[in-house]
Amino acid sequence: MGWEALGQWGDDVTRVERLTGGVANDVWSVRIDGRLAVGRLGTRSDADLAWETELMRDLDGAGLTVPVPIPTTDGRLFAGGLVVMTYLEGGPPETPADWRRVAATLREVHRLTRGRPQRPGWRSSADLLHTETGTKVDLGAMPPESVARCRAAWARLAGRPTCVVHGNPTNPSNIRMTAERVALIDWDEAHVDVPDLDLVLPGNAAGLDDHAHDIAAQASAAWEAAVCWDDDYAVRRLAKVRAV
Questions:
Q1: Is the pLDDT of residue 21 over 70?
Q2: DSSP-assigned letters across all residues of 174-226
Q3: Nearest Cα to 114, choosing from 165, 167, 168, 175?
Q4: What is the mean pLDDT of the chain?
Q5: CB distance 144 to 232 below 8 Å
Q6: Closest CA to 178 of 91, 100, 97
Q7: What pLDDT shows up at residue 25?
Q8: Contact predicate 121/47, CB 8 Å
Q9: 148-161 as b/e, with b when 16 or more CB fall inside 10 Å?
Q10: Domains in the chain and their CATH numbers?
Q11: Given this model, what pLDDT does residue 1 score?
């Protein structure tokens, strides 16, 4: 449908300017009834978007600061691949103390989402030990030796409890901080997996011990290599994963 779907949020709605940072989606600031919001247009399925928008509402209801979906005039949380969300002020983390606050916020997300069902069409790192595809992951496109390295890294996480992981919290542009709160934005990569994948933060802000940090860092690098394969970033991340 494209951006014409924006009309389903009412008559007084318009795009303002394109926002940078997104890769898979077209993201713009929009104005609805005089207030600033964010519109994200992509190609996710309705089931995928339903999972994400319900997650946002649940986290907001639990007291976390996340973008909250703004319903269309007939009450839907998305339409034609378009989601419109509240705009959140703030800046990126800059100090070790800031990143420790981010780690604490992520751990609260993980606590609140234990036992949540997997995002439709997605696979966890444990699933990918036995299957090759899931949303943006296609292990069949990677060299067999690279797949073996990734699976060896993920196997070290197997059997651990799962929850929702943000999926890209190390990108400072996905965080909006003020003195009062930490907001996590851009949940497009969120899915159910082992929480350690979210906790490989700058300066080891999550306070993982050496062994736990090594396991998490290897698994995280393998995940990013598989999701992005085969661009330059994916190759660099794969280089961080030890050979089998």
A1: no
A2: GEEE-SS-EEE---TT-EEE-GGGG---GGGTT---HHHHHHHHHHHHHHHHH
A3: 165
A4: 95
A5: no
A6: 91
A7: 86
A8: yes
A9: ebbbbbbebbeeee
A10: 2-86 (3.30.200.20), 96-239 (3.90.1200.10)
A11: 72
